[in-house]
């Protein structure tokens, strides 16, 4: 049993430096920085974002998003849960920004949903699908900052709208996606929307 555990630990490599022994080594974890952008997002009451999008944090997001690496989602969720332990939340339910259908098919899972469900396990707050895409829009990564906002007008529909929601995504860039989802939730009756993401640009 012990030899199996040692063998498994040896195969696990840090997402940042690739050293063996854990998904995020102490050196890479200690090098992670908080986000420098603390600007508000329209419709969002509070933000829970532990890291700036650089170094090992960026590697973790890309591993989950582009390489279909499920363990990365758990590491990201732990970081957000640790942040929430400090900041606190009044959310009744966790939900997520729904991914684009094509991306979910290629990856095999919705990465934001996986982070949200892992976060639910660690916080004890139930995770539930409250949003869906009204239609697929052009990928946000191909657009300018201004076009990202206009691209997401009316992009999300609400399945259900509890009063206090914690919205999860992998990354906040301009805030357009979070604002669009928060606006949809508020229009459907949510009185408070908080945002949680591992990283912010």
Folded structure, characterized:
The protein is α/β, with parallel strands linked by helices and 201 residues long. The protein has one domain (34-200): Rossmann fold, CATH 3.40.50. The chain is built from eight helices and nine strands. It has helices spanning 2-11, 26-31, 55-66, 70-87, 101-107, 111-123, 145-151, 176-187, and strands at 46-48, 51-52, 93-96, 131-133, 156-158, 164-168, 171-172, 192-196, 199-200. The strands form three sheets. Strands 1-8-6-3 form a four-stranded parallel beta sheet. Strands 2-9-7 form a three-stranded parallel beta sheet. A two-stranded antiparallel ribbon has the order 4-5. Helix 3 (55-66) packs across helix 4. It starts with a helix and ends with a strand. Mean pLDDT is 89; it is low at 1-9.
Topology:
Blueprint: H1 2-11, H2 26-31, E1 46-48, E2 51-52, H3 55-66, H4 70-87, E3 93-96, H5 101-107, H6 111-123, E4 131-133, H7 145-151, E5 156-158, E6 164-168, E7 171-172, H8 176-187, E8 192-196, E9 199-200
Parallel strand pairs: 1-8, 2-9, 3-6, 6-8, 7-9
Antiparallel strand pairs: 4-5
Helix pairs in contact: 3-4, 4-6
